[in-house]
């Protein structure tokens, strides 16, 4: 368990307890660490919910709770922080991502993969901070459609992972103008749940297109077929 005595060290600027075999819940006393900027409890077996008292950590920049067994929802009180990086992937979180958290202009990294979030893609991208560089949403229950018609303000996104969700639609020809800085875009294995196993188990290799000098990753060597199986239609735009 997490020793509550640590929480009396109110001048701590950083607390990292990653991969230390911790279990049990995060104590509400974490809210006493009002000067902490980095809080890392990743890679443990922490259970329970994220306490609302994290909203008291007004200097918090980095919060990493990834790779635990945390459930419940992301507390809206995180909007009171100065988060630049939020990593909560690999838990059992549910519900929707608080809009005011997404609005944080300081937020640059948002890693939420492997949970049970049910937001609409359009709502996330429309609310997202214009300074977001990485958005990881893989393996959730995100719904919505492509094209990304209202993401012009998200012109700093470099990494966008949307695979294994419930997204439909057609990749637009002007996607590079909508996401001008994007280096990695993954939209594979969406919508066609009954076909996911077939796609996942097939002998495939990622198709690559050069974009800003790095890989623009979408799917495999039978691209049109697999895009159709996962709920996306049409062909990859030639100008990507």
Q: Keyphrases for this structure?
A:
alpha/beta, eight-stranded parallel beta sheet, three-stranded parallel beta sheet, 5 helices, 18 strands, 12% helix, globular
Oligomerization status of the protein chains: single chain
* Unreliable residue stretches: 192-231
What percent of residues adopt helix (DSSP H or I)?
A: 10-25%
Sheet of most strands: 8 strands, parallel
Give the topology.
Blueprint: E1 14-16, E2 23-25, E3 38-40, E4 45-47, E5 62-64, E6 71-72, E7 85-87, E8 92-95, H1 99-102, E9 109-111, E10 116-117, H2 121-127, E11 134-136, E12 143-146, E13 159-161, E14 166-170, H3 175-178, E15 184-186, H4 196-201, E16 208-211, E17 214-217, H5 223-229, E18 232-233
Parallel strand pairs: 1-3, 2-4, 3-5, 5-7, 6-8, 7-9, 8-10, 9-11, 11-13, 12-14, 13-15, 14-18
Antiparallel strand pairs: 16-17
Describe the structure.
The chain has 240 residues and is α/β, with parallel strands linked by helices. The protein has helices spanning 99-102, 121-127, 175-178, 196-201, 223-229; strands at 14-16, 23-25, 38-40, 45-47, 62-64, 71-72, 85-87, 92-95, 109-111, 116-117, 134-136, 143-146, 159-161, 166-170, 184-186, 208-211, 214-217, 232-233. The strands form 5 sheets. An 8-stranded parallel beta sheet has the order 1-3-5-7-9-11-13-15, with no helix packed on it. A 3-stranded parallel beta sheet has the order 6-8-10, with no helix packed on it. Strands 12-14-18 form a 3-stranded parallel beta sheet. The termini are far apart. Residues 192-231 have low confidence and may be disordered.
